[in-house]
Every structure is written in C-alpha cells, then in structure tokens.
Amino acid sequence: MRRAVLLPLLAAAWVGVPLLLGHSNYVMSLVDAALVIGGIALAWALLGNLGGMVSFGHSAFVGVGGYVSALVTARAGLPVPVGLLLGGVGAMLAAAVMLPVLRLRGPYFALAILAFAHIFRILATEWSSVTGGAAGIAGIPPLPVVAGFDFGTRTGAYFVILAIVCLFAWIYARVAASHYGLALRAMHDSEDATRVLGVDSTLLKGAMLLLSAFMTGVVGAFNAHYIGFLEPDYAFAGLWVTLPIVAAIFGGYRTVTGPLLGAVVVYLLDQLLFKELLPSGHQLILGALLVAMILFSPRGLQPLLARRRDA
C-alpha cells in the first residue's frame, strides 16, 4: 500500500516540480537547498533512530565530503560522479576516527562528535596548502552535462539531489526492515539484554555511524559542486547541524520519509513565508513552530498526517 502511494508521488515530484517551478531559478534553488537539508536530516535520523545516538557533529561529514570531492575533481581531474562517491568515502574515514567515542552515551557522545566537527574545521583552516585555508577553494567543477542535458543548472541539480535522497531513503528502509534493524531497535529497550543474546551492539552502532557519515558526505559533496565554492566556516557551519535536526524532528525522525518531508516544509516555509513576515527574526517563528509540534505531536508531522487520514 505504501509503495502504491509513494511511487506516484515520487513520479509526480520528479516531473511536476520542474514543470511547475523550473522557470524560476530562485524557487528551484530553494527546493534544491531543502533537499540537501533533507538528505542530511535523513542521515541524522538513521543514526538517531536505528543507532540510538544523537549527533551534534554531522557538519564534520558535510565538510569533509565537500572538501574531498572538491579536491579530487578540481586538482586531480576526476569526474564529478566519482568525486561524489569519494566524498562519501572521505566522510566514512572521518567517522572511523570517531569510532572510539561509541563508548560514550547520551550527551557525552553528542558533545564528543561536536568536538570532532570543530577539529576538522580547524584542520581545514590551517592546512592551507591543501584546502586553501580560510580563502577556501574556488572553481569547483559543476555537475556534468550528460547527453546534452546540463545537470549543473538548478533544474538539473534537482534531479541529481532527488535521486540521491531517494536512494538513501531506500537504503534506510532496507536496513530498518532487516534483522540488523530489528536488533538495533531491540537495543533501544535493553542493550544489555541484546548483548546476552549475542548481539554486538558496538559493531552495529559503528556500522550505523559509518553509513550515516557516508550519506552525509555524498550530500556535502553534491552541495560543494552545486555552489562551486567552499571555505571552512561554510563547509563546517552549524547550520548543517541545526536545520537537519529541526527538519528530522518536525517531520518525524522515526520514519523514513519524515525527515525529507520536514526539510521541505520547514525550509520552504522559513524562506518563503516566515522571512517575509519577520525578515530579521524569522528563526523565532520557526522555533515556535517546532516547539508546538513537539508539544502536540511529539512523533512529528508525518505520523500526525497519518492519524488524521485514518480518522
């Protein structure tokens, strides 16, 4: 039943959005940005929902993924699609450095990951011979032209980022439906009990951290090629933490499509409506909306819509 609903919606989004909004580069850029945030929110929700770990440091994976892809394409001359994959691999390697913090729990884990994000930002700033330092990297190759179609345009980029987030949503759903997903959900109730049954909780959590980092790194790499410029304060900015978390919680981080829905709704509302109503303090409205959602529907927007549909 879900497939019967989701597939037509996906087809409509794939074709309908460019037809309706493709004439406006500004609106398409907002849609692209919302999907970038949605991809990061999806990766964050995977780690939080399946791995049971709250991260405040996903900006590390966004930044590392962007820098790796920018360097291997701009300086080594590799194709952009290869750069996107290597950006994900680079983010996985960054996550591998963080694996020792899996021994920590709760806020200690979240703060440790945040500390790593700051370390990577400092490295990107100080290692100027490779990263360009505070001046950043300019002239990052855009998304390629394939069979005469330019994926470097706002509409072309929409097809790429939509394909990326849909692929990652499918991977998330497959993992959640597998016996690994069952073991991870059981760990939330009693990690000690699952260990007695022979489940290696540390290994599973590490796998979720690596997978979440890879997904985030690919999205970060896409964003680097999309904007064509990268510098440390932007690549490792706090917005890559706050906005995806808000989107995931608002949409329903315990569902697969909730973070994507939350990102589109939250970001577009903020940019198209709240910013017009309150230009200098529109984040206040966004914060109030999030508080209201947590109070009246703690599981997020998607479960709320599902309950209303069933009613």
Helix-strand blueprint:
Elements: H1 2-21, H2 25-49, H3 58-74, H4 80-98, H5 107-126, H6 128-131, E1 137-138, E2 145-146, E3 149-150, H7 154-177, H8 179-189, H9 191-196, H10 201-227, E4 229-230, H11 232-235, H12 239-251, H13 258-277, H14 282-296, H15 301-310
Antiparallel strand pairs: 1-4, 2-3
Throw out a few tags for this protein:
single chain; 311 residues; mainly alpha; ABC transporter involved in vitamin B12 uptake, BtuC; two-stranded antiparallel ribbon; 4 strands; 3% strand
Overview of the molecule:
76% of the residues lie in helices and 3% in strands. With 311 residues, the chain is mainly α. The chain has one domain (2-310): Orthogonal Bundle (ABC transporter involved in vitamin B12 uptake, BtuC), CATH 1.10.3470. Strand 2 (145-146) and strand 3 (149-150) form a beta hairpin. Helix 3 packs parallel to helix 5 (107-126), helix 7 (154-177) runs antiparallel to helix 10 and helix 12 crosses helix 13. The longest helix is centred in the C-terminal third of the chain and has 27 residues, at 201-227. It is globular and about 55 Å long. The two termini are 17 Å apart. The model has no long low-confidence stretch (mean pLDDT 86).
Approximately how much beta-strand content do the residues carry? under 5%
As a whole number of angstroms, the C-alpha radius of gyration is 19 Å
Provide the CATH top-level class. Answer: Mainly Alpha
Oligomer: single chain
| Main sheet makeup | 2 strands, antiparallel
Strand arrangement, largest sheet?
1-4
Mean pLDDT: 86
Helix content: over 70%
Organism: Pseudoduganella armeniaca
Subcellular location: Cell membrane
InterPro entries: ABC_transp_permease, LivM-like
Transmembrane segments: 43-68, 80-102, 108-124, 131-151, 157-177, 207-228, 234-253, 284-301
